[in-house]
Queue: 3 jobs
Job 1
Amino acid sequence: MSDRLSPPNPDHLEKVTGRTQFITDIEVPGMLHGKVLRSTVPHAMIKSIDVSAALAIPGVVAVLTGADIVGLNHHWGPSLKDRPLIAIDRVRYVGEPVAMVAAENERIAEEALDAIVVDYELLPFVTEAAEALEPGAPLVHGNHEAIKDFYFKGEAKPVAGTNIFQRYAYEQGDVEKAFAESDRCFESKYEFPMVFHYAMEPHCVIASFHGDSLTLWSCGQSPTAVQKVLSRVFDMPLARIRIISPHIGGGFGGKASVKIDPLVAALAWKLRRPVRVCLSISESMLTARRLSATVHVRTGVRNDGTILAKSVRVLMNGGAYADTGPAVAVKAANRAIGPYRIPNLSLESVAVYTNTVPGAAFRSIGGPQAVWATESQMDEIAEALGLNPAEFRNRNLLRRGEHVRADLRPIDVEMGEAMDIAAQEMSRIKALDGDNITYDGTALGISDPGIMPVASVVMRLKIDGSVAVISNSVEIGQGVRGVLRKLASEQLNQPIEAIEVLTPDTAIAPYDWGTGASRSSLMMGLAIEDAARDILSQVAEIAELVFSADPAAVRFCEGGIIFGNEKKTFSELLHTYYGIDSGEIVGVGRVTPYSNGGRLAQAPLFWETAAGQCAIAVDEETGEIKVRHYVSVADVGRVVNRAAAEGQDEGASMMAFGHTLSEELVYQDGQPINATMIDYHVPTIDKAPENFVTVLIESGTGPGPGGMRGMGEGAILPVAPAIANALAAGYGARIRELPLTPERVWRAIREKRGS
Amino acid sequence: MFLAPFKHHRPTELSAVFEALAKYGDEAAVYAGGTELLLALKARVLRYEHLIDLKRVRELAGIKVDGEELVIGALATHHEIANSAVVKQHVPAYAALSEGIANIRVRSAGTLAGNLSFSEPHSDPPSLLAAMGASVTLVSPQARRSVPAAEFIVGEFTTVRNEDELIAEIRIPLTRAGEGYRYLKFGHLERPAVGASAGCIIRGGHTRYRLWLGALGDHPIHAAEVEDAIAGVPVALLPDVLPKLAVSFASKISATSDLHGSADYKQHLASVLMQRALAAACAAASGERVSHA
């Protein structure tokens, strides 16, 4: 209970009183304001852009177009160098930046957008993934350079002369033979829509060139990736590019890798003045979205419910630019396996370009798409075999230590335990509620976080015992600063009040891959462990020097060190050592594939998992699903901050209610027709279940300090299939296309009843 | 998403509003809550050189009972209406409708008169106002006239209001003993896909009903043939006849397929909501305590 009563993240009070500084609150001397003119057509050559009328408007300082950037390394991308800083001669989706105005204020800049005239020569376009694969489909791109090990390890595998920008396959056992030996084979196709991240804070960046240097206040989740891309684009040394990451109002992958930073920097480069660009939420909807997917799953079973083989084919709609899509496609295939023993397994994934908003990483990349398909089918098979869905899952469930895939780390949690807890909690809730009118559905999700074991932290122990923790882990609302504070406090054995976690700034914070993939608490936790060891070895050495202490006996105690029977404050130690009453010890912590005896190198670093169970009631006449109760269970190894961890779990589940029940970006004639928050419906608090229970299992089996593993994404996985499974269980209606809108549900129930 | 530059006027008298309107003509628009107009201006769908803020015109404010009618001033917000003791007492069904409009931000700023003037089809109030026999009072510098709410909206974003007229007030007959009304809506997006408003009027052993549909077409739809067919049918017998009539009527409504749903689904929703709304209205008329939650 003490965890619950302790204050949550130190920044909460600042946030609720409106004092937290977000990028939009920052004012840089001489700063101009930029606005983006976006393509109104899905695919076209740009014949001309007339900016003269815009430039004539008082207060307009400059307009950036593709013509300005020819001298730069104008194409970039985290996997494929397929994206121009700003459209050069061609636009590939409605919403693509075509021109940018910099003006004295935002109002003038926006006014000037209306004065720019763009003449397009329309090209045939394609918005559906299946159509993009067809011979003769309009090609969204020519060939582009795949850049190996740039952001993710490995490289994308595009297919020349097609719209395919990624192709991935994996095979174990003999799938066809196993299908032939199976008693029953089940094959179905599942559709997952394009959905928007909807971070409350739209993308916002300030860029400023000064002398030979560039400073960017970035909303990006991966400051070092932003730094690297800008370094290539402007041919500048990394050390001259400084990325500062203040508090960010949510990311969910929509701000991962690199998004609008190069665009804003290009405008600042032209201006040679600082410029701020803050998108509207509708513009953010045209910046990144989750890759939609069609997932074919074929599963062969014996009549007793033993799975013999599984074949998964994923087709993803990656939009106009590959962005992080190549990695998403790989993960979608892997995450469709599930926590089951599948001796014969075939995975295939293809991601294609289309003339739509670029697809990008989104909370558990590829996971919800894959788990939606595979966990829906698990219930379908159970029903066909006359087995209870939980019993069917149990029969095939991997135990801790067994392999999901021969080449991956064995599963490190007991999924059966999580599933049982979910069922017990649901029974308890229903008994308390007196509920006997809802139907239950269950699903399990496992994901292999794409975590590179590459992170570092600097900890500066001051003479007064206070400690500055300096890293590039971005506070995007997930509470990472609070977690790092607590972990540093534990590792250095200092009171939490002594620890200060600084704002990420690449000028002073050491390299880190980025904030995403459920990695920050864990990776920085490991780095902090290492940095604490570094500080201890330095103070031990000094204690030996100045107090003749046995260095091996030196330990941290509150405010100082202890060795044998002696206790010295940090002040006594450093004063004696430096000769003046000042100074500090700088500790560096590093995580690499060689850390911890190489044990971090095998992929995945841990398995992020979730069991979800829902209880739903359906208004059969309108088709509206009401999720009355929801239980989310995950083994997170160890809970560092309970309020924040439960908040992450609840947030991930609630986010899934969106793609499950109402969210879908709809395209018609190449236009996104509902890309505003009025026509695109994100669930509000009144859609939250009456009872929502999160159970976090603390098995202590994760790779981080105290046995922690990463979390924050897993709970998004089981929601959609759990709800669809409940619908099928209660009403006999099996829907294989998300979202489960009232109309789809009504039709499915009506069809089932044959009326 | 910024408003284009405009000149802002804040008259305190109705006469000054009319003077400004006469002076600037097409270049001026009036607003109170701004929940509809400002969005359209920000999206640059509309553009005006002059915006006339009505909020200080006291003649347009207030909610009161006048004889047998509730009078809602043009400046009354949905939130004020929903929480007004007078409205809750005398036209409880309309108070309940107001409480369910959009979200608290819209309800706090948006006015009923603004909602009607804008006449966005996916809106809550018009069908219930029509079912309750409400009227809209329009004023111009020359005249004052009353238009039945049922006839006020003629199409998408189009009303019978003339350029030189303003809505002064909305008058709703007080709900008397033996009468009950209910508005129900359904949709999975921000705005309703379909709304249905029903009334049940029991007088001296004779029962009449009112049925209107909202959001489906570009103006409220009167289910007159259903009303006629069930006129005089006692409440208890309604379930025997209504379902067939509702389905039949709904199937003839011309609905369009869009983000809110396919045409046939909307027709189906219309028949479901008509039946549910009428049942609730009957319960209210019979004096049953009805939860409007």
Job 2
Amino acid sequence: MITIVDYGLSNLLSVKRAVEVCGEKALITSDPQVILDASAIILPGVGAFADGMNRLRELDLEAPMLQKVRDGTPFLGICLGMQMMFSSSEEGEPTAGLDIIQGSVVRIPDLGTNGKHQRVPHVGWEPTIEYGEDKDSLFNGTAPNRECYYVHSYEAVPDDRSRIRGVCLYGGREVVSVVRNIDGNAVGCQFHPEKSGKTGLNILQNFLCGI
Amino acid sequence: MPKIRLISRLDVKDTNLVKGIQLEGLRKLGDPNRFAREYYENGIDEILYLDIVASLYNRNNLSDIVTRTTEDVFVPITVAGGIRSLEDVRKVLMAGADKTAINTAAIKRPELITEVAEAYGRQCMVLSIEAKKNSDGKYECYYDNGREHSHLDVLEWAKRGEDLGAGEILLTSVDRDGLQRGMDLELIQKVCTSVGIPVICSGGASCVKDIVEAAQAGASAVSVGSILHYGKTTVSQIKEELIKQGIEVRRS
């Protein structure tokens, strides 16, 4: 079963409904055992990094998720869910992340490359641009401009840039938008596929196709 | 080139979409879900639901409508009206909303802004400001759907709201609401230069030119009501025209 991790910080209903529109069934859970039995895991999330990681740990969800990722189970992190896949974040109290992808999460700068002020949080629809040599399967069937809905004050920076599969531009800078682990089974997107209209549903469908 | 989001604002009373003039004199227009779905299919970037009588009755009535909307609308949904506590926020988020916009309760107890931002993230906490221009030319915040004075200066309150943790501002010009005579550009420009967070501007958009001017004045998003509800134009027509006039919008 496709399992959506519930740690009290997300709009789970929209994610579940989006999976259903893609023709699959999904279960919302905070039960470690159910996660161990999952055919795929979706880690959604809005809110603060430290808060999210603390809740995952309080609910004993970190170890089962990491085990599943090691076992090759498809894993999708959305927004804060993607950021928590990284080693650490500078948001709030220093807190270790899931470390599925090595790197850190840093605040979006207040100034763009042109030296002009830019609004933070970054809220809006941006084209998600393919990055790296191989086209990621997540982008199959999407239009080249593939505008997706972003809302975030922090951005992820992987140590190994070959983990990056997609970026968007904000204030003239490339902001990491899609990342994938070396084994290829865990992917994260900074935008919200469940809130990105038909493009988002297409991307979610591509993730579900890999199961 | 400025880029904006186009948001449809759906004022709801009981189970009906309604629209008034200067937030008064309401007309019933029908099932809000039907309108939300149509606007989504037509390319709207976000949906904003406002329970316009919630503050009067101390409750927000939108949960069922929001849940039905999430069935077939896959863009962000904001819920406003009568949100008074963290528990109220939790309920609308559980129902499927992505953000909540708060006016009255934030004026009465500003710490609520920080509490919501800390519990659910800044992106979830939209500070709703209902602005009216006073006889001395200053903008004052109103509450209870434009009925009550707060004696708060709009620019000072917007800045304070940002400092307290608001992630966006929903700025409604009460003077212009529902009149379809253009937006209050002076208000938009002043608020947008006072804060570093995105500002959603609402009230008075009657045509594409008004939206273009709001974008040029610094709006990150413009919310429209009447011009869509009365079938004067469609979301896709507005977007085509905005692109022609040099304003970038989501095209897909």
Job 3
Amino acid sequence: MYQIIDINEDNLELYTSYLGEDLAENIGRSYYRGLVAVGDDGPQSGMVWLVKHLDEEADTESNIIWVRCDAKEAFDQMMEAYSERARSEDVVRSHVFIPVKGGKEMKAMLIEKGFNMRLSESDVVVVKLSELSEMPLMKKLKKAPIPDSIAPLNSLTLRTFRKGVSKCVMNGKYGLCEDLSELGIYWFEDEVSCVSSDDNGINGFFLFHLRPSGVMAVQLLVCLDNTFKTTLPFMMRQFVTAMEEKYGPDTLVELDRHNEQSLLLTEKLLPRGFGIPIYAGGRNE
Amino acid sequence: MIKVNKEQNGSELYISLEGILDTPATPALSDALEGCYSGLTKLVFDFKDLEYLTSAGLRVLLTAQQEMDDIEGEMIIKNVSDDIMEVFELTGFDDVLTFGE
């Protein structure tokens, strides 16, 4: 028998190495949940998921973003506990995404648990800073000056930042952060993240978070008006220039094509870019 | 521009590609594969004359691999150039696909 433990900020330190730092730092955020199944030798299975649409009219769903199994029985018990947790939050459907690399066994176990797993392409494209710098579009953008309307995040007052976030939330633009309105400005790397403004205040955000592992991960990429075709590329230019000044060429940049604008920008910037192969699956709860 | 050559031998389908597998070219490959999977046990791609492929080409291969997985068939890619293998390695496709001589 294994002990099933809900991971929270109080016990996180015990399980950080099992989850990995990049994942562990999200525990404590409103929509993140984590479970471990612990035996005599420590954690033997673990999972982290995001609850989506919890406070909205749309059906509540769950995205399982990490799952690990070191003992089948632990995994089985953990998945039972997950089902209970999902039911208690009225989750209608669960989705799971695991990398193909090393994922064949987990895929089979998830199929056993009712997930229909299929090969797919992740929304996430990972690229080195040096590759971004060398892209033809980036070289072209670097020939033009950055418009005055675009500035680094650290040039903003907290008040202006919060007003901009409110605007995004009102327009349903959360990026990868369901809890965008709760996240402080400190969550974002404020020298490389940038904003675009006009007479009405902020009209665009290019927000990145520096993970503990050193990966620079996009959090929100949006332009709220019809200038996005010019604004977004120049915000990317501002981002890359700032990155080059502060970080090494081998720094990994994670671009998640989380909305149409980020998809179009990434396709334009990285025409050969491809999301990592994943197994994606879902099941009704 | 792509040239797709198909050769079926019982339950085995051989497809050789000549040219570039980019966005405009992928419909030709998708069309060639459409409806072929039923009864197939093996799908072999020959990349001897394939110069280059883009993310659009990768997507077609991903779909083909999933289709073959669904019917528990085998999909193999032969004669992959070093440049194309580099693309597969960078994108993680070397974990998805099976390569042969």
